[in-house]
Amino acid sequence: MPPSLNPETQIKAWAQELGFLACGFAKAEKLDREEIHLDQWLANGFHGNMQYMENHREMRLNPTLLVPGSKSVISLAYNYFPETTPFQPNSSTPQIAKYAWGDDYHHVIKDKLFKLIDRIKTLYPEFEGRAFVDSAPVMERQWAVKAGLGWIGKNSLLLRKGVGSFFFLAEIIGNIDLTPDQPQTDHCGECTACIDACPTQAIVQPQIIDSTQCISYLTIEDKTWPKGNIDTENTDKTEAIDPTINTGTWAYGCDVCQDVCPWNRFSKPHTEPQFQPRELIFWDAERWNQASEEPARIKNQLKKSAMQRAGHKKLLAQANTALDFIKAHKSS
């Protein structure tokens, strides 16, 4: 290690070399302040069918229980904002959230985390750590805040000054002491653009999302949605979803609260080849209708894709719902 670089600076330099847009450190300890907010969110039922959010509560709040012997949380951000944006307001084709345009980010980013761990071991041969990318009971945004990566916006997503919010979060929780970074201040001010623009009013108050009203939740997580979707097995939902909810043109996820955020005017295109949009992103109504007749067509598109979480049956059902919405509004 060059004598001019301390361990924290060196790790951040390696992270940058691996393509991460930000890296910061926080002490591994229980998240006492976040405990109250988590419990209240769950008590309100805002997690909907995501029963896994109720599991491993203590581990979720305390990384030293998730990774015994851990002393630091290394938090990282990885850009996914695309250069090509085929969707415009009042789009005439089913829309896919930008984060799912390319290959599955879980695998793409975790491979980079493993490489970073290997480099850290050249500084600390005794280093042991685990890598997480939107997986396991880890409160990613909260750790990113503590590590100085940004602040939580009113849409509950992490915002970074001069960058926006179109990035993934990831963590390495390990057994070395690293000097914590200083948290950033909140720069949302009086802006309520995300709250005002949410099509289903899912942002019930700043930083609080009722998932059962959220288009991303409905189109990805809830297997009973849309109505008539044939893939409704293995669900323990007991209450009917509000029938007045309209997911509009969205087939998978939703970007509305990010698209309207003033900070995202600073978003720059990613440079990750594996995040290049697949063919499905540009399908018109005719191609979606063909996919309904030929399931193998869409199954092939979902290989190595984050959209596999919804599955091809649900995705097709949601795309058909979006097409019906588009047709109805064209004729009105």
Unreliable spans: 230-241
Distance between the termini: 66 Å
What is the gyration radius calculated from CA atoms?
A: 20 Å
Count of alpha and pi helical runs: 12
Question: How do the helices and strands follow one another from N- to C-terminus?
Answer: HEHHHEEHEHEEEHEEHEHHHH
Please give the order of strands in the largest beta sheet.
Answer: 1-2-7-4
What best-fitting shape do the alpha-carbon axes yield? globular
Number of domains: 2
- Number of E strands: 10
Mean pLDDT: 91
DSSP strand content: 5-15%
Helical fraction:
25-40%
Describe the structure.
The structure is a single chain. With 332 residues, the chain is of the alpha+beta class. The protein is 33% helix and 12% strand. It has 12 helices and 10 strands. The strands form 4 sheets. Strands 1-2-7-4 form a 4-stranded antiparallel β-sheet, sandwiched between helices. Strands 3-10 form a two-stranded parallel ribbon. It has a two-stranded antiparallel sheet with strand order 5-6. Residues 230-241 have low confidence and may be disordered.
Layout of strands and helices, then pairs:
Blueprint: H1 7-17, E1 22-27, H2 32-43, H3 57-61, H4 63-66, E2 72-79, E3 95-96, H5 105-123, E4 129-132, H6 140-146, E5 151-152, E6 158-159, E7 167-174, H7 193-197, E8 203-205, E9 208-209, H8 215-221, E10 250-252, H9 256-259, H10 285-293, H11 295-301, H12 312-331
Parallel strand pairs: 3-10
Antiparallel strand pairs: 1-2, 2-7, 4-7, 5-6, 8-9
Helix pairs in contact: 1-5, 10-11, 10-12
